Amino acid sequence: MFAWLKPSRRRNRTDRFDAGGGEGGFYSLQEPYGNAWDDDRDDDFPASSARSRFAEWDARLGNIDQQFEAEERRRLPFWRPAYWRGQRKRWWAVRIVAGLIALFILIVAWLALTAPLSKSLQPIASPQVTLLASDGTPIARSGAIVEEPVEVERLPDHVVEAFLAIEDRRFYDHWGVDPRGMARALFANVFGGSRQGGSTITQQLAKFTFLTSEQTLTRKGREMLIAFWLEAWLTKDEILERYLSNAYFGDNQYGLRAASLHYFYRQPEKLKPEQAAMLAGLLKAPSRLAPTKNFDLAEQRMKLVVGAMVDAGYLTEAEAARLPTPRLDVRARNTVPTGTYFADWALPIVRQQMERGYSKQTVTTTLDARLQRIASRVIARAPLGEAQVALVAMRPNGEVVAMVGGKDYGQSPFNRATQAKRQPGSTFKLFTYLAAIRAGMEPDDLIENTEITEGGYRPKNARGQYSQSITLEDAFARSSNVAALRLYYQIGGDAVIDTARDLGVTSPLPAGDPSLALGTSTMTLLELTAAYAGVAGNAFPVEPHAFPKDEQDWFEWLTSGEKSLSSRKHKNMEELLRAAINRGTGRAATLSVPNFGKTGTTQDNRDALFVGYAGDLVVGVWIGNDDNSPLKGISGGGLPARIWRDFMRAALTGADGPLPDARPDPEGPIQPLDVPELEDIPFGLDIRNGQVVISGEDGGIPLDIVLDDNGIRIDPERLERIIERRAAERERTADQQEAERQRARDLEEAARELEQQLEEANR
Q: In 10 A of CB 173, how many CB atoms?
């Protein structure tokens, strides 16, 4: 309808006529019928009134066009460019500013709902924990020195003013972020002044409470947002209190109270101005400026703080000049070690159970200080050379009473008892033979002991010793590899793995790998010793623990899932373990009390172990090189067994003095030697259930001579079983010998016939 008007409006829609009164807009070439303005006064219509009418009409038409265009944009989807085309800059600016404000409000609201405000009340470093031995002796102290938080209203003015002067003079005036301070720091950093930081106290609290120390713009942005949020939810005094209570002051001191007590032995409420100035100066570089290490630097920094207090109007020049250099008052230092192998293992456990707070913690552990001293002395005396060593001693219920993770904690804090996973060697045969016993086999059952010549895996026996058959007890005592492998095949690898799992082994155990029977899978010494503890107490699995546990009630015991062996099977397994230590590869560990154990040596002597138990102690010993290189002349039946024996002798007899050097006594009883090449000694001494048992041989028949209140006697049951076994072996041997003799006679007869034929041929 108005299309004929559009070209002129687009050229100039505001000035339709020129300033001189001439028509500068548009007009029709033909007068329309009638008069649109006044039907009766066409001739008298003034030019100015006409221009006004045209301008009004043109504005109405422009509004109609705008409404049409707006309606067209509303019908378009918002993602179409035409939807946004034609908007004015002011329209864009208003909406961008409004969007940023809305985004900021949403972020602050999100922080208010999700960020834990209480975290700013908690210490940024874990407070100090003191570990005590079972007798109350301090054994380790670790963690930051953290004291109770301070209250600003109780602090002297000069204490608060010292921190405000050097850290944030406009703290009580800004809203968490100080643009003036940021600009001043930027100017100083860009134009070569001393490097400054523009962060406020609120920003610093946000940084070390909620964020990391990374130097990125993203972290700085998050720091500013959290600072705004803290200002919205906390008062200025609350922010300052949390900042002063958590800031690091060097020398492992966190918080103003801890630092005040450490450096000046004063509560912060009684600090002098010069002392407060020195403490305030430490915050820039606590480790470097700590007055106990660099007093001169701390003094220079203190003078800078005093000058800042003068500039801020907190001190006059005369008052500042009268301030002396403070004198340190550092009391007796902590003599308890900050770390030991046992403490490094126990501390993460206790911290998981602690509630966050500023209070110090003192926790009693299961460690026996006397046994720990014995273990340390025994290890120190052992001729280890360059090799490393680990020792774990625990009760059958899993209470760890002694732990050594290496020769020297100061040189290597790596704990080889809890962190190093090494091959257990023949000590793993415990699971193989126990699986056989659980399957119904007896110690006197025979198993083939000949060399393996078929298959992809062909282990050898030490020193190449084989026989047609061997009992389970002798195979375990002599650590026969071929017998263990055949036993693995006979009972199945799954049964061995299930037994290990029942005893608490959690390390990976590859299924279908026959080398598993000889201990090629890796595990920690702590894990292996705990498995032996399960056999010692006949209750498994055993969980090693560093802190005393409450005794289980009947319901907890019923639902604990503990397993055990029948008395007969448990006795059979202990018979094997006793044989290994009394007349087998572990003879060097023999004690004068009932003892049970097993040696272990991995391929190329890379690991040497002895694990066993006696009395109420279960002890594992490992020796090896950290780089897994072969040991020189060390096997499981050698040095590890002797270390085990020396520890047990002192531990079980109650001796706590220096261990005497072993000296041969030609007039005394014969001592078993730890020489792998020696054959079995002719007799052994053992104590079983209050009875002295002498094991020996008479004419090749093993005998057990029992000495008790009833006198001296021979164990008839064992003698009968052994005689039957020996008789069966002699019968088999006699049959073999008869077959060989018959074969020889046949050969002789054939030879005679051949000779007769030759003689007849010569005739």
A: 10
pLDDT in tens, 144-203: 888 889 999 999 999 999 999 999 999 998 888 877 766 665 665 555 554 455 689 988
Range 491-495, long-range pairs (CB < 8 A, 24+ positions):
491/432, 491/435, 491/436, 491/439, 491/441, 493/517, 495/435, 495/438, 495/439
pLDDT tens, residue by residue, 73-118: 666 665 666 556 656 677 778 878 888 888 877 876 666 565 555 5
Q: What are phi and psi of 374, to 5 degrees?
A: -60, -45
Residue written as token pair 């138990």: 613
Strand partners, 63: none
DSSP H/E element including 388: strand 388-394
Q: Is residue 132 helix, strand or coil?
A: strand
Tokens 């023999």 label which residue?
590
CA distances for 84 relative to 66, 78, 88, 205, 246, angstroms: 14, 8, 10, 44, 52
DSSP single-letter state for residue 117: G
Amino acid 8: pLDDT: 40
Structure token pair of residue 558:
């019923």
Strand order from edge to edge, sheet including 684-688:
684-688, 691-698, 701-708, 711-714
Question: pTM above the 0.70 mark?
Answer: no
Cα–Cα distance, 696 to 709 (Å, whole number): 21
